[in-house]
Amino acid sequence: MSGRPTAPRRLLVISAGLRTPSSTRLLADRLRAAAVTALRARGLDVADTTVELREHARDLTAMLLTGTPTPALTGLLDEVGRADAVVLVTPIYSGAYTGMVKDLVDLLPEDALAGVPVLMGATGGTGRHALALDHTLRPLLGHVHAVTVPTAVFAATEDFATEDPQHPLGARVARAADELAALVAGRPPRVQDDPWDVSGVAELLTDL
Amino acid sequence: MQFGVFSVGDVTPDPTTGRTPTEGERIAAMVAIALKAEEVGLDVFATGEHHNPPFVPSSPTTMLGYVAARTERIVLSTSTTLITTNDPVKIAEDYAMLQHLAGGRVDLMMGRGNTGPVYPWFGQDIRNGVELALENYALLRRLWREDVVDWSGRFRTPLQSFTSTPRPLDGVPPFVWHGSIRTPQIAEQAAYYGDGFFHNNIFWPIEHTAAMIDLYRRRWEHHGHGPADTAIVGLGGQVFMRPRSQDAVREFRPYFDVAPVYGHGPSLEEFTETTPLTVGSPQQVIDRYAAMRDHVGDYQRQLFLIDHAGLPLDVVLEQIEILGAEVVPVLRRELAVGRPAHVPDAPTHASLVAAAGGARDATVYAGADAVTGASPEAVVR
Hey, which bits of B137-257 come out as E strands? Predict the structure, then answer.
C-alpha cells in the first residue's frame, strides 16, 4: 500500500445481458469482484459502478435517430468518459456481441474509451463461441483506441453448471482481472478534458 | 423580448392524408406563414437554408426580399445562414441588399449546417466546419465594416482592393446571431464579438441549453461586453396547441410519430418531458415558456417551430393565430415582470443606428471605372 492520497480509480462494469436475471450479469458480477480484488491488491483505491445496458436500450435507439441523448443516457456516456477501467460483458448472438453494445460504442463521444483498459467478457450457449470476443469485440474496441486486456473471458452455459473450484473459468477470470489491474496501475488516474474549455478559440479569433 | 417563428422549409407528406405539397405550395406556404406572423403581432420570421431535398429554402434572401415587400414591421431573419459553405462575400452582398430593400428589418443567424454531403457540393469539407465558421465570419465582418478589404485566408481565394456593395444600410451592418446546439467554440465566437447567441434547443433537455447559455454569458463578460446578464440570448421552441390539451395531443401525435428527425424514436410523452416541445393548451405553453428564463436568465428572442412534419398550412396558420392572440401577449407581460432594467432588448436596426451615433450614407462613390468598361477580350489582350 502506497498510502498516497489519490482519487479512487473508477471501474465501470457494463452488462449487456438481455434477460433478467441473465448469465451475462452473473459473469459481469464475477469479473467485477475479481477486478476490484486485483486493483486493491496493487494498492489502488476503487470506486465501481455496474450498469445494465438493457435499461438504456430505448434511449440508445432514440439517440441514434434524434442525435440527442436523454438525461439518463447522458449520465452513462459521461460515466464511460470518466472510467479508469471498463468491464464489458455481452451475450454472443449470431456469432458476435449484441447490437446494443454496438449502439453504445457508436454513440460514445470521440475518445471516450481511448487509452482506457477494457476487460471483455461474454456468455454463449456452447463453447464453440469461445473466440467470438477476439474476432468481433476486440477489433471494435481497437477502433475506438481502447486498450483491451489480453485475456477475454468467455463462459458457456456448461461453465455455470460446475461447482469445481479448479474449473478453468475461475482461473481465467482471475488472470483477466489481474491483467486489467496491471494496466490500470501502470497509468495515472484519468483526467478529463474540460468540454467547456474554449481558451484556444479566442487566440485563434484574434489572429483572423 | 422578441417572439417569432422559424421554418425549416421541409416538404413532408401529411401522414394523415398521405398528400405531399409541391415545392411551389411549400414556398407559398412559407410566405403565408411570414405574413400571418406579422398580422398577429409577432416580431420575427426566420427561414432555414438548405441545399438538398426535401427542403425548399435554398435562397433565403430571395424569399425574405419578397416577404419584405409585403410586410411593414416584422424582422426578417435566418435559421440559419450557412457560414461554412456560402462565400462570405456573397453573404455580405446579399444581406446588405436585403437590408436596403427591407428598410433595415433584417438580421441573420450564422450556422454551420450538419448535412455532410452539402459541404463538398460547395467545395468544402464538414471536418473543417468550425474553422470555416470562424474564418468566414471574420471576413464577413470586415466586408461590412471596411470599405476596401485586402484579405487572405485558408478557405477562399484572396481579396485585393475589394469593396462589397451595396454598403450596409445607414453604415450599420445587420445584427448577427450565432446558432449552435452543442459546440462551445461557437458560443465563444458569439461572445468574443459581442454578437447574439441562439441555442436551438428543440431536441435538447433544458440542462444542456442552460450550460451552453451559461458559457456564452460568462465569456461575453470575459471579453468586456458587459455583465453576463446583458448578453443577447435566443432560444428555439416547438408547440402545438388546442383549447383542450387532449385534443392537441390527439391531433399532433400522428405528425410527431413519423416526423423527420425524431419520428420512430422517443414517444411524444418522453419528448415533451425532455425537450421544449409542448403539446397542449395555450396555458400549458405559457407556463412552459414563461419558465425558460429560470434556466437561462432573461433573454431576448424566442422562436417557435410550428410548420414542419407535414402539418397542413391552415393548421399552421391557426397555430400562429393562437400564438399571437393568446400566448405571446401573456408571455410579454409575464416576462417583463422582474426583468432588470439593464437587461437589453435584442438589437434592431434602429437601436444599432442610434448606438452608432445616427445614420450615415455609406455609399462608396467610385471614381473612374477601370473594370467594367472593357470587354473580356479587351482585358485579355
Answer: 149-151, 159-162, 175-179, 196-199, 233-235, 239-241
Question: Topology of domain B2-380, per CATH?
Answer: TIM Barrel (3.20.20)
- B127 CB neighbours in chain A (<8 A) are none
- B222: amino acid identity, one letter: H
Instruction: Give yes or no for a contact between A30 and A106, defined as CB atoms under 8 angstroms apart.
Output: no
Residue A1, pLDDT score: 44
Residue B8 to residue B74: CA distance in whole angstroms: 18
Residue B370: predicted pLDDT: 59
- Distance of alpha carbon A138 from the chain centroid: 12
- Contact between A111 and A190 under an 8 Å Cβ cutoff? The reply is no
What DSSP string runs through B100-126? HHTTT-BEEEEE----TTHHHHTT--G
Contact assessment for residue B156 and residue B88, using Cβ atoms and an 8 Å cutoff? yes
Q: How confident is the model at residue A198 (pLDDT cuts 50, 70, 90)?
A: confident
Q: What are B65's three cell numbers?
A: 426580399
pLDDT of residue B373: 59
| Degrees, nearest 5: CA angle B216-B219-B223 | 135
**Mean per-residue pLDDT, B209-227:** 97
Q: Are B164 and B143 in contact (CB under 8 A)?
A: yes
pLDDT over 90 at A135, yes or no: yes
Does B138 contact A at CB distance below 8 Å? yes
Q: What is the DSSP string of A161-204?
A: S---TT-HHHHHHHHHHHHHHHHHHTSPPP----TT--HHHHHH
Q: Which domains does chain A have, with CATH numbers?
A: 9-207 (3.40.50.360)
Task: Give the containing element (helix H, strand E) for B37.
Answer: helix B23-39
pLDDT, tens only, A71-122: 899 999 999 999 999 999 999 999 999 999 999 999 999 999 999 999 999 9
β strands within chain A, DSSP E: 9-15, 46-52, 85-91, 117-124, 147-148, 153-156
Quote the pLDDT of residue B377. 61
Q: What pLDDT is stored for residue A207 in this prediction?
A: 81
DSSP category for residue B266 = S
A196 Cβ under 8 Å from any chain B Cβ: yes
Out of B138, B192, B215, name the one closest to residue A202 (CB).
B192
Count Cβ neighbours within 10 Å for each residue of B103-121 and write b for 16 or more, e otherwise: ebbbbbbbbbbeeeebbee
* Other CB atoms within 10 A of residue A13 CB: 25
Collect all residues of chain A within an 8 Å Cβ-Cβ radius of residue B264.
65
Closest CA to A54 of A34, A10, A24, A30: A24
- The model's confidence at residue B288, banded by pLDDT at 50, 70 and 90, is very high
**Cα B4 from Cα B2, distance rounded (Å):** 7
Contact A71 B138 (CB under 8 A): no
Q: What is the grid cell recorded at B25?
A: 405550395
**Domain ranges in chain B?**
2-380
CA B99, B105, B109: angle at the middle one, nearest 5? 80
Tell me if chain A has a CB within 8 Å of the CB of B319.
Answer: no
